[in-house]
Amino acid sequence: MSTLEQNKDSQKSVAGVMVASPLGGSRKGAERKKIAIIGIGLIGGSLAIQLHEKKISSRLIGVDASKEHESKALELELVDEVLPMDEAIAQSDVVVLSIPVDTMVGLLPKVLDKVTHQIVLDLGSTKSQLVEAVKQHPKRGRYVATHPMWGTEYSGPTAAVRGAFEDKAVIICNEEESDADAVEWVKLMYKKIGMHLLNMEAKAHDLHAAYVSHISHITSFALANTVLEKEKEEQAIFELASAGFASTVRLAKSNSNMWVPIFLQNKVHVLDVLDEHIEQLKKFRNSIEESDTGKLKGLIEHANEIKRILK
User: E strands of the chain, at which residues?
Assistant: First the structure.
């Protein structure tokens, strides 16, 4: 049971969404929304589960470039129906974009061209190019830039996870550029599915995402390639790989169609953190090569300080 579910006595209803209220009491908001999700893979599918279970949606419309994904999403009851994008937008109150960020940069302005009252939000891992792409759009206010900090190494609608976003952070970027009603609904939706909110400017988001998310994937991809290059015996990898190795290299199973655009869109910050990471690897290499016990111990103990932040 989620934290919000455990504290129903102190909740209120706003815009059809139940959220924790420090003041107690309740007020009736709008009805549940008709929501279109463009991209019904891991992230979009997981959100669809939550939107249904938390009674945020009255109807879920799926849109996907893959007919196989659309069929599977219907089979798994992630969405109520699938429609072409233009029809889905026209019939919805909220449009959620959950597609690769390179495709999203081109699609977002086109989606905004078609909306009237609808709220549009995205779930992308980079923000600067998206925000810049619609900066001068006449319907910019209907768009809320968000990044829920959750994901797995799997992809597609079959990878969708129940309760995926609970107790995770979601970053809302450049809030002041969005209409107040759109921001309010999006915030309440995220609270309802159990997330805690952070506000950040888009460029700052991309910088921090490079350091706490993107480099983790590069490191995992590189480690997997290292092992595959040096250890040619697959059975040895399977039998000897420890739990530590498996957890470290887990992200190497992530979808390239998602991560290549992220790395390239956030190239400046990714290169910066990658340069620093390479310098840190050099320090470990040099201390081992020189059998410098003190330096090696110091590097490890400095790294141990991360436990002050990550429990």
Answer: 11-14, 17-20, 33-38, 57-63, 81-82, 94-97, 119-122, 143-148, 169-173, 196-200
56 plus 192 within the same structural domain = yes
Q: Tell me the average pLDDT across 301-310.
A: 90
Digit-coded pLDDT (tens) for 138-158: 999 999 999 999 988 889 999
Stated pTM of the model? 0.81
The whole-angstrom separation of Cα 2 and Cα 13 is 17
- pLDDT tens per residue across span 3-13: 333 333 333 33
Residue type, 221: F
Please tell me which residue, 17 or 190, carries the higher pLDDT value.
190
Q: Is 200 helix (H, G, I), strand (E, B) or coil?
A: strand
Q: Which of 201, 222, 255 is the last residue of a domain?
A: 201
Residue 28 has pLDDT above 70, yes or no: no
Q: What angle do CA 134, 36, 256 make, to 5 degrees?
A: 70
SS3 assignment, position 99: coil
195 and 293: one domain?
no
In sign, the C-alpha dihedral spanning 114, 117, 118, 120 is positive
Round to whole Å and give the CA distance between 99 and 79. Answer: 16
Domain shared by 140 and 177, yes or no: yes
Domain extent for 11: 3-201
